[in-house]
Amino acid sequence: MAGLLVILVGPAGAGKTTLAHRLIGARPNRRGFSVSHTTRPMRATEVHGVDYFFVDTAAFLALRDADGFAECAQVHGNWYGTSKAEIGRLTKDGGDVLFDVDIVGAHNLWRAYPDAARLVFVLPPSWPVLVQRLRDRGSETEQTLRRRLRTARQELCGVVESAAPWQVIVNADLDAAAAQLEVLMAGSSDATPARDHPVLQGCLRAAEADPLAA
Ligand code: 5GP
Questions:
Q1: Which atom of ligand 1 is nearest to the CA of 36?
Q2: Would you state the pLDDT for residue 78?
Q3: What per-residue confidence (pLDDT) applies to 77?
Q4: I want to staple 206 with a disulfide (CB 3.0 to 4.6 A). Which of 42, 50, 127, 141 is the partner?
Q5: Residues with beta carbon inside 6 Å of ligand 1?
Q6: Ligand 1: which atom is nearest the Cα of residue 105?
Q7: pLDDT-derived band of residue 139, with 50, 70 and 90 as boundaries?
Q8: What is the percent of the chain where pLDDT is above 70?
Q9: Structural class in CATH, domain 5-34+94-213
Q10: How far is residue 178's CA from residue 140's CA, in Å, rounded to a whole number?
């Protein structure tokens, strides 16, 4: 596999999806987005085969039992998985693949493809900005907001404790974050280990003190 597997993880509201599509838009013939399978119901704005392959639980588990997933995990009570066929399709001509998966999936992909995988944690500039971005979406109820913030706190903790080589991108400004990701994909690596990154540490401290994320 000549291309890179660029695995974007980070809180909902950090801008992973927008960032991934920006990077793909810059080189659409050389980069693709890994479309996952999920058992989650399709949202009104989503398209089957573009956002996800929406399948029922029986179909998902059949593919899992046939060893069809490179990784799969339950997130918020639904199954999500990256099929081996999707990775094969996107990498067959040596292209790079961008992934939006949870932290468990990221670690599993990294273990499965240690040479090609690049683990990238996308952060908002601060915890209050993240909370505000989620509120501004207008689509979150108080309950889903709390669940997303709790997951965000767990993922921040997970990265700090991870032994894997994470790199951090702070998405304060989309152009700047996209430029930073381009540099990273060109092979340069962030000198600051993720766990020592000041924005990551600041977000984690604020998350741990926030009753909404408890
Ligand atoms: P959503 O339902 O909001 O689209 O995604 C919920 C969570 O599932 C996000 O954290 C997203 O990154 C994660 N996710 C999406 N696809 C996959 C996948 O294929 N594998 C894993 N492990 N997580 C995924």
A1: 19
A2: 94
A3: 86
A4: 127
A5: 36, 40, 71, 73, 75, 80-82, 100-102, 104-105
A6: 22
A7: confident
A8: 97
A9: alpha beta
A10: 26
